[in-house]
Amino acid sequence: MSNASSLSLALRIWRQRHDEPAGRFLTYRLTGLSPDLSLLEALDRLNQQLLLEGERPVHFEHDCREGICGSCGFLVNGQAQGPQSGSTVCQLYLREFSDGQTLTLEPWRARAFPLIQDLAVDRSSLDRVLMAGGYVSVNIGSAPEANALPVGRELAAQAFEAASCIGCGACVAACPNASASLFVAAKLAHLDLLPQGQPEAAQRSRRLRERMAQEGFGVCGNQLECAAACPKEIPSALISRMNRHARS
Amino acid sequence: MRLDPRLPSGPVAEAWSRRRQELPLIAPANRRHYRVLVVGSGLAGASAAASLAEQGYRVRLLTYHDSPRRAHSVAAQGGINAARNYQNDGDSVERLFRDTVRGGDFRAREAGCHRLAEISGSIIDHCVALGVPFAREYGGTLSNRSFGGSQVSRTFYARGQTGQQLLYGVVQALLRQVEAGRVELCPQRDLLDLITVDGVARGAICRHRLSGSLETHTAHAVVLASGGYSNVFHRSTNAVRSNASAIWRAHRRGALLANPCFTQIHPTCIPSGDPDQSKLTLMSESLRNDGRVWLPRRAGDQRPPDQVPEAERDYFLERLYPAYGNMVPRDVASRRSRELCLSGHGVGPTGRSIYLDFDEAIRRQGRSVIEGRYGNLFSMYERITGSDPYREPMRIYPAPHYTMGGLWVDYHLMSTVPGLFVLGEANFSEHGANRLGASALMQGLADGLFIAPATVPAWLADQPHPKLGEDHPSCREALEGVRRRIAHLRSIGGRQPAEVLRRQLGTLLIESCGISRSAAGLRQGIEGVAALREGFQQELLLPDPGTPLDPELEKALQLEDYLELADLMLRDALSREESCGAHFREEHQSENGEALRRDDDFCHIAAWEWRAEGEPLRHQEPLSFRAIHPTARSYR
Ligand SMILES: Cc1cc2nc3c(=O)[nH]c(=O)nc-3n(C[C@H](O)[C@H](O)[C@H](O)COP(=O)(O)OP(=O)(O)OC[C@H]3O[C@@H](n4cnc5c(N)ncnc54)[C@H](O)[C@@H]3O)c2cc1C
Ligand code: FES
Fold it and tell me: Which of A193, B48, B202, B634 gives 20 to 30 Å between its CA and that of B615?
């Protein structure tokens, strides 16, 4: 962690155009960075320089820049969403690094996430998994009064925690088998825990797991790297819960 | 041009149900012949697309995000209002209606505000049914908190992630329709023009952000739900890619733009530090339920906050507004904060921040209660600033946040381009000159879940079926226009990246058209923008990256639209010679610095018409108040 008022970093970044079969690392040096900048803001700075030098800027996904939209995400020194636990790369501030450090940035590598360009990958497979049944099948206009069905405070809080998954894909990137089990388990827990979601629970579980396999995600090997990488700290216990329910 | 808002006659309380009875319907078997193009997958767009598809219409949804669940609505923190009176504290539809009209400083339509309050309860019912995990009491009923500008607790919430949870609820409903084949999802599309045939909206031209190809999408109606335009300012609380291009391009095709100068500056955001900082992060208004706003009494007091004794602190909102205290509406809190900072009371390295202090709340209620309410906001704050708000007061400052202005729509949410409907923050409806906290999510969902699903079919019922071919001359004309525009931007060959020029524009705009505005400042702003527009045409650097992915092109296209929009905002602010809501004109204030509205001359909506040559034209839609008599807003 740096207390310096300004720091220099070497960014070793994976560069691969959308149409290139293979990529390579290129190293860029940035100096005079304020420790109050985020890592993505340092990349903005780099891109501005590259543009002025006539080079192609580094492609990366981002939008909210406050850890909630799930757009950003790449490996920082081999870790999905970077070294800081419970946060996305857009929430990573340079004060977490030391002056002169080298950071290696590379895209997530998983069969179900084809490369788009440089640090960006295509994660639409996650949406297709949800399409298989990650919802409550109720039409608009046919809902009972909101307080008609009480839901215990603890239960609602647990459902909320599972539902806080931002769909960034870090769990897949961290998993040696590139499984989306944590993502799927979180959605199942969110909906199964609430009385509104229970009628479809069994079918939902089966369909989401089938679709996950069809989309090319791997099988969970219980190594639990996913939960360690999750920026929303979704617990791996949800995977055990999913497996328990699948067997019963 | 005469603006017809199509307001129902008779008492406002029955207006919406009466109107719904009159709307024409389409038989279930015929609905699949109609195609609706929805732009945007935020709360408004996703819910409209899902509802229309459930009814049986064929929907195509465009969004520039890679997934509909990333729309900017996901970032809403604090909550959503509904008049349910679950807390038995005297709330009612009538009261929410009044609060909305009054909060908007009598610059919104009564009938629209009433409809919003009526629908609010059903929104909560429906979201609960979709599985939105709202906060609950021990007995299992729904919890509420209170928000600025209201004296009841009517805000429903899911920790500090209400927008995320609501969005996931409606996006899941949307994905269900995609799986059923009733919605075609088109992510990574940037809308660059609206297609009109004989003045009627019939589709859009998009650029595919990954392949770079230009596409023509045709439909029987177009629903625009592309969000607000706060990013025209330099740094706002919006996601960095939120933009104004969809509404601006529709404006150039004939949709009037209403009250563009009504923009909200949110009082509680994390202040800026480094010049390269890309955005400002909001700290939810709900924090003002427990946090107390203060500044040192003595100007220039440099002591750290814990060394300023109680007697030397000025809890200025509590002092000036005893009835509402820290919960005054946003415009009032922002203006007062800025004034005190300008007079030397501000704190922090730049003197441009104020304290939001939780010390008393933590002592009174315990750390765990505060953590339960705001835990994620506190950790977000700590991560960004490196300071622990459980131990030190937060430092906050106002930042551009929300735009009440937007495309003019009638009571059916249809713009002045027939067949073009505008929903959510992109339209100008119901919030008047100032939006109350937790009312944007309510409005977006009211529009998308309940209003558009009734009014869009009513429009379709009068439309012929035949599909518009992509080779129709109007489609080709629009496509060619976009192609020429891109080629022109590439040919400028200047030395300035779009981002640099955008910063200049955004800084100029926040100075001339921000929290406080004056005729002289606005005139200077107009001149400054004209110079920047010329500069853009000469200095823009936009090299061909050699790959179809081209974020620089996206930024340049957006900036070109911002430059034109900024000019219109300044003109609108200049011509509205009164202070109302978030629009504060220095020439129009009382002795104690409160806003002075001028109802005799300005009790109207200003709707601007774009013209290819010459200055834009200002039209007026007069407002009349029958249920509530306009009074001066007072929160003292
Ligand atoms: C940080 C923050 C916190 C907030 N908290 C609250 C709160 O607690 N309560 C509350 O009521 N309100 C809150 N608001 C306001 C509220 O979140 C927004 O007004 C609301 O979510 C807007 O929803 P929307 O559906 O209109 O648009 P958005 O959610 O902004 O969605 C816009 C959609 O349009 C698409 N789009 C835009 N332009 C184009 C284009 N050119 N081509 C293709 N697609 C395009 C985008 O991809 C996106 O899908 C908050 C706002 C911010 C910034
Ligand atoms: S940019 Fe939204 S989570 Fe990082």
Answer: B202
The per-residue pLDDT for range B373-389, each reduced to its tens digit, is 888 889 889 988 989 99
- Quote the ligand 2 centre to A71 CA distance (angstroms): 5
Q: 3-class SS at A129?
A: helix
B268-401: CATH, from 3.90.700.10, 3.40.50.1450, 3.40.50.720, 3.10.180.10 = 3.90.700.10
- Does the pLDDT value for residue B450 go beyond 80? yes
Least confident of A96-110, B321-335, B541-555: B321-335
The whole-model pTM stands at: 0.97
Would an 8 Å CB–CB cutoff place A206 in contact with chain B?
Answer: no
Inter-chain touch B66–A124, beta carbons under 8 Å: yes
CATH fold for the domain made of B473-602: Methane Monooxygenase Hydroxylase; Chain G, domain 1 (1.20.58)
pLDDT exceeds cutoff 80 at A201: yes
CATH number for the domain whose boundaries are B12-262+404-461: 3.50.50.60
Chain A hits for B51, CB-CB cut-off 8 Å, are: 140-141
Least confident range of B151-155, B183-187, B294-298 = B151-155
CA atoms within 13 A on the CB side of B1: 18
Find the Cα–Cα–Cα–Cα dihedral B517, B521, B525, B528, rounded to 10°.
-160
- The mean per-residue pLDDT over the stretch A143-171 comes to 97
Residue with tokens 């899941």: B172
Is A179 part of a structural domain of the chain?
A: yes
| β strands within chain A, DSSP E | 7-15, 24-33, 75-76, 79-80, 102-106, 115-117, 120-121
Task: State how far the Cα of B22 lies from the Cα of B5, in Å rounded to an integer.
Answer: 16
Residue A72, ligand 2, Cβ within 6 A: yes
Residues B593-612 have pLDDT tens digits of 889 999 999 999 999 999 99
> Does B263 lie at the interface with A, CB-CB under 8 angstroms?
no
